[in-house]
Amino acid sequence: MVRFFNRCFYQNFEIRRVAVVCSGQLTQCCDFDDDPDGWGVSDQHAIDMENAVFGGATPMQVLHGMDEAVAGNQLIPGGRFLRDIKFIVKTDLMQFKDGRQVTPNLSFRPAVGNGLTKGQGQLKNNLTLAIDRVLRGEGVLNTGVNKWLGGSMPRFSFASFAPPTDPGKVHDALVIPVKGVEKLNGNNWAFIQNLEKKTGCKILVCKKEYPVQPTIEIGIHGVRAKVLEAKKAINEQLVSFLRAYPSDF
User: Fold this and answer.
1) Do the beta carbons of residue 165 and residue 106 sit within 8 Å?
2) Contact in structure between 202 and 221 (CB atoms under 8 Å)
3) Secondary structure, 3-state, 164-196
4) What is the DSSP string of 24-44?
5) 89 touches 111 (CB < 8 A)
6) φ, ψ of residue 170 in degrees (nearest 5)
7) How far apart are CA 191 and CA 216, in angstroms?
8) I need a surface site. Which of 15, 36, 208, 247 has the fewest CB within 10 A?
9) What domains sit in the chain, N to C, each tagged with a CATH number?
10) Is residue 66 helix, strand or coil?
11) Could you tell me if 124 and 87 are in contact, meaning their C-beta atoms sit under 8 angstroms apart?
């Protein structure tokens, strides 16, 4: 991400829209802190060679840019043409084969969850706080001069990848506590099967992937009005559970 926007800036490429996948790799492997001793201090030689910046860089700092006085070099100039920034929240509803993640026919839907792991959830929370700071006009922390003021501020949103959408239909989803699945899977998923017949929607309840996973996503594909009807029915089915375990939702 750092190298990509560096090349775009200095080669004068005009990138107006970008989608950034929220993963631990962004903050753990690609933060350009180059802290060989583990003391939270970047290696000066790496900074001089533009292989690191002082204190490392967060995704928002990379997108906004860091002044040389802050970063220690000109490695992170930012995306000066950016107008639309989507942060992609991972979801079990969109599985990829052979490690491939982006194809020309992918669509987006609003993100309803916080990712598949606690780390992804924490990243989304950090990004939310950083975006709120930008929207207040305070800029991105530790970047220098605020470049995102007034008309220069890009649009921010959280989204998830979705399969290609059939004409006249939409993809949507909702998140439920893992424990709430037992309110939906009785009698061989009779409730879900009947709801599919009633609404004409395709409903997919994801499987639990991690031992400590607190929530499960349910994907719904169909005509918008029927999707909303299905979401309402599922929420009503879970009402008794939510009353018994309010802290889990």
Assistant:
1) no
2) yes
3) CCCCCCEEEEEEEEHHHHHHCCHHHHHHHHHHH
4) HHHHHTSS----TTSSS---H
5) yes
6) -135, 160
7) 17
8) 247
9) 2-162 (no CATH), 170-248 (3.30.1370.10)
10) coil
11) yes
Interior/surface letters 69-98, b for 16+ CB within 10 angstroms, e for the rest: ebbbbebbbbbeebeebbbbbbbbbbeeee
pLDDT tens, position by position, 63-110: 999 999 998 889 999 998 999 999 999 887 876 554 556 677 778 888
C-alpha closest to that of 141 among 58, 27, 231, 242: 58
Record the tokens describing residue 88, joined without a space. Answer: 């992609």
Reduced to 3 states (helix: H, G, I; strand: E, B; else coil), residue 115 is coil
| 170 within 8 A of 109, measured Cβ to Cβ | yes
pLDDT digits (tens, 9 = 90+) for 183-237: 899 899 999 999 999 999 999 998 877 777 778 889 999 999 999 999 999 999 9
Pairing of strands 202-205, 215-222: antiparallel
Predicted structure pTM score: 0.78
Distance, CA of 122 to CA of 13 (rounded, Å):
32
Q: What's the N-to-C CA distance of the chain in angstroms?
A: 34
- Pairwise CA distance, residues 92 & 96, whole Å: 10
Beta strand 84-88 with 17-21: parallel, antiparallel or unpaired? parallel
The torsion angle over the Cα atoms of residues 55, 34, 76 and 20, rounded to 10 degrees, is: -100
Instruction: Estimate to the nearest angstrom the gap between the alpha carbon of 87 and the chain centroid.
Output: 4
Beta strand 155-162 with 84-88: parallel, antiparallel or unpaired? Answer: parallel
pLDDT interval class at 36 (50, 70, 90): very low
What is each CA distance from 59 to 50, 73, 130, in whole angstroms?
17, 17, 10
Give φ, ψ of 11 to 5 degrees: -100, 5
| Sole residue written with tokens 């350009």 | 32
